[in-house]
Amino acid sequence: MPRVQHPDHDDHRTILRFLGLVLVLVGGVFTAIGLISFFSAFGGGGIPDKFWCAFVGLPMLGFGMMLLKAGYLGVMSRYVAGETAPVVADTADYVLQRTKGVLRVGAPSIDAELRSDAESALPRLSCPACQAPQRAGAKFCDRCGAEIASVRACGACHHENGAAARFCNRCGEKLGA
């Protein structure tokens, strides 16, 4: 699969890597000078006159590391993805192999439960003539054979509502008889 990227990305990554490395090296030297000056003062070396180098070096060191991270982010991401993808695939295969028998036994009951939940979520219809409950989608009554209107259109907004609705559930208008 070809990589889709801007043509200047390679140049930008090279610049980030170079500047990051330079800042890390220079910041590391400044930080070392400042810390050596500070800690040598404890041994009777006098006042730490180069301690200011640590205050210059630490931000340079941090910013340089940030630039290096940005310059190598794609490489690191591809490495992590390459290391984790086989593990995820192996785990999925293992789970599927170990649960094959369980799924054969449990799938029909799960299917039945899902179907009953879906059917119970549908609005129940009743016959307008004898008020007998009807299953969803019925066109005629099971008991008396009367025609069952499955939808009622609103006169104001023409929205289709359930057969038992007295008010439109879009605009609230009272539905005619």
What's the rounded overall pLDDT mean?
82
User: Can you count the beta strands?
Assistant: 4
What is the C-alpha radius of gyration, as a whole number of Å?
37 Å
Structural class: mainly alpha
Distance between the termini: 63 Å
How would you sum up the major sheet?
Answer: 2 strands, antiparallel
Number of helical elements: 3
Strand content: 5-15%
Would you mind describing this structure in some detail?
This protein is mainly α and 177 residues long. The protein has 2 domains: 96 residues, no CATH class; 55 residues, no CATH class. 57% of the residues lie in helices and 6% in strands. It has 3 helices and 4 strands, in the order αααββββ. It has a two-stranded antiparallel sheet with strand order 1-2. Strands 3-4 form a two-stranded antiparallel ribbon. The protein is elongated, with a radius of gyration of 37 Å. The mean pLDDT is 82.
Label this structure with key terms:
177 residues, two-stranded antiparallel ribbon, 2 domains, single chain, two-stranded antiparallel sheet
Provide a short characterization of the protein structure.
Helix content is 57%, strand content 6%.
